[in-house]
Amino acid sequence: MNYKIITGLSLLLFIVTSFSLKAQEQNKAADSLRSKVIRIFVDCHRCDMDYIRREVPYVNYVRDVKEAQVYVLVTRQQTGSGGREYTITYIGQEEFAGLNDTLVYHSNPDNTDDNIREGSTKMFSLGLMRYVARSALYDEVEINHLGITEEVEVVDNWDNWVFEIEFDPEIELEESRKSINFDNSINASRITHALKYEFGADMRFRETKYIYSDTTYISNRNSWGIDNLLVFSLSDHWSAGVRTDLSSSTYRNLKSSFDFTPSIEYNIFPYSESTRRQLRMLYGIGYSYNNYIDTTIYDKTEEHLLEQSLDIAYRVQQKWGSVNISLEASSYLHDLSKNRIELDGWISIRIIKGLSLSINGGVARINNQITLPKEGADEAEILLRLQELRTAYSIEGSVGFTYTFGSIYNNIVNPRFGNGRY
User: Which residue among 3, 72, 223, 414 is buried most deeply as judged by most CB within 10 Å?
Assistant: First the structure.
């Protein structure tokens, strides 16, 4: 068992190394072109960066503000009409030091996400023109790019590797209640057009003490996990990859769990159009090993399993609105009756000017809770949600209508005393 895992991991490491060497050779060939491209750092918390990179491919998007020739800050505020004001600030660095600018884009209250994304990105690109005009690529760009220069990313010594470390302690103290939470995580990723690799490790600790009638109650809910995802781009429609997970969860009655799942995905639309529309079908079949904290309802203390899953995701963003729907189905191969089917969706539609409809929700048929402890949960565990509970279904949802009317030209921002209901 251990020999096979080590052999498999060694093979994956060899493949990753081979792709990395190949990518470095391709990067060297493109260095002469990339050296002419302006480097920018975009500071925006709610921007669709995938869309921006595709619509504005004639610049280099760097991940460190110190490496940028132009720093771009995007902020937003609510306007009196119910729309938003987007302020795009450009600050020149290095040879562009002192060359600064500020542009403002206003959205109307009945604009869809696609309208706003398209308009703000157009304003974003116009602000870059004064810098592009001073670069070696000025003759390749008009108001819209000519398509000569494809998407380019900064080439640095990190070879597209990005790392993130998070430490998030939280403490709440009251006279009769004390709560301590720790969320720690480490993430690493390397994403290119040919290869996508993501690594994540997290640990969550929850401890809450309640004092009631001179009695102290203590609840604990802890978990940790190590995840790996490796994906290869086979074509503009096909992808193949493998995911491995090692985890533990008191909520799910798992002392330890290991999953190894090779998968293949087909996107009916080209991946190059993913920011506007997707229809992806992902099928995986893999091995799982579970070691349980307590004996399960099926009298198991540990288990070796084979499981298959099928995920179908449809997403579209157009001027009329947005749709995001996913269907997930899975089953254990040793007993196909142990399965789960879940449908989730979010829809936003502009019906007429000023009137929009939003629907979101999900429904699941659940028949795969093989990890439930045999003794069940006591009253405290139920009330405090310390353990997963048996259920045959799950339903949630909401429907909302929004109608906005009045002046569409009120672009004044007045943040005094806050923004009211906004």
Answer: 72
